[in-house]
Amino acid sequence: MINELIIPKPDDMHLHLREGGMLKVVSQHSASQFGRAIVMPNLKKPVTNTELAHEYYDDIKIHTKGYDFEPLMTIYFNENLTLEELKKIQASSRVVGIKLYPKGVTTNSNMGVGSFESGYKIFEMMEKLDVPLLIHGEVNDSKVDIFDREKIFIEKYLIRAHKEFPNLRIVLEHISTKDATEFVRESSSKIAASITPQHLLYNRNELFLGGLKPHAFCLPVLKREEHRVAVLDAAISGNSKFFLGTDSAPHKRSEKESNCGCAGIYSALNAMEIYAEIFDRNNAIEKLENFSSKFGADFYKLSQSKNKIKLLRANNKIPNNIKVDNDTIVPLMAGQEIGWNCCDI
Fold first, then answer.
1. 217 Cβ partners below 8 Å, 6+ apart?
2. How much is the pLDDT for 105?
3. Does 13 or 103 have the greater pLDDT score?
């Protein structure tokens, strides 16, 4: 039995840090466990160009002063992206890609694309400059069942886009279906996927057992057990196309337990310990290092961290809530005990 794991400081390849008082609290949680994180651009005022990305980077660095933490910025995909702007993105040491949201599919995505094909001219320029495209892979068609939106997006848009732009690096974010795992496996080395802890832990029953549970609501929504198992198998497979991306997405408790019922699950405070718990339960703890510290860095052409963290087998209780402003955040696995603890070395 492995009781201690020392690995290069991991990378969170999909993270929401928000802004204001929320940013101050949650950025330090991520910085305590991760050396780098790819930060999503869907703020209330989206990060639509390199200048705004650099400003947001500076805000994050203010709040994580004293931590060994490097935010990796993304640009909100928009039709005003010119060749000149794309060259700025390519040249920036702080920006690693462009994030595409179909309009209205998740938090602050109302400025997303209405038509996926309308982005093809920009995709072509991105392919030539080798700028990665990060995709929230769900259709925004209200006629499509919410549990099928990832599957339909892949079938209707992503397969064709990969054929049209075979050298464009694409990350299918926070995959939640067997269909997504199969698409990624069967595609070229230019296609990869990030995987969250919630899509490894839970199927859609978690949303309803004991009553409607707003803190288990995320997008993509949790799916049937066969899909959870497929995503878990991908994560622990050792296939370098699958890597860690928490999609940690904080909302205040009052916003989750409301008519909005905002989509997002917060995991940053104990993310690595939860991943260790999942991998350990599935006899794959030795696979965690590559999944969290190597595969994502390789895909984004980043060097592996020289710093280390230590994961120890020890009892660890997730807090029931986390104070922020005049409210709280309810974290993933709130109040539950897990068997791993994380610390810097």
1. 207, 256, 261, 262, 263, 264, 265
2. 76
3. 13
For the segment 118-170, what is each residue's pLDDT rounded down to a tens digit? 999 999 999 999 999 999 999 999 999 999 999 999 999 999 999 999 999 99
Place of tokens 């886009």: 161
Angle at 8 between CA 17 and CA 291, to 5 degrees: 70
Q: Would you state the pLDDT for residue 104? A: 77
Q: How far is CA 199 from the centre of its chain?
A: 11
Residue 173, H or E segment: none
Q: Convert the pLDDT of each residue in 181-205 to its tens digit.
A: 999 999 999 999 999 999 999 999 9
pLDDT the model gives residue 286: 97
Strands 70-76 vs 36-39: parallel, antiparallel or unpaired: parallel
Tell me which DSSP letter residue 154 carries: I
| Separation of alpha carbons 202 and 333, rounded Å | 11
Tokens of 280: 């350990």
Left, alpha or beta for 66 (phi > 0: left; psi -120 to 50: alpha)?
A: left
Q: What is the mean pLDDT of the chain?
A: 96
- Catalytically annotated residue among 145, 247, 280, 325: 247
Q: What is the CATH number of domain 4-344?
A: 3.20.20.140
Tell me, yes or no, if 247 is annotated catalytic: yes
Q: Which two tokens stand for residue 60?
A: 């994050």
Q: In whole angstroms, how far apart are CA 294 and each of 22, 287, 288, 303, 309?
A: 29, 11, 10, 9, 14
pLDDT digits (tens, 9 = 90+) for 222-267: 999 999 999 999 999 999 999 999 999 999 999 999 988 899 999 9
d(CA 311, CA 309): 7
Q: Give the CA angle between residues 297, 299, 302 to the nearest 5°.
A: 40
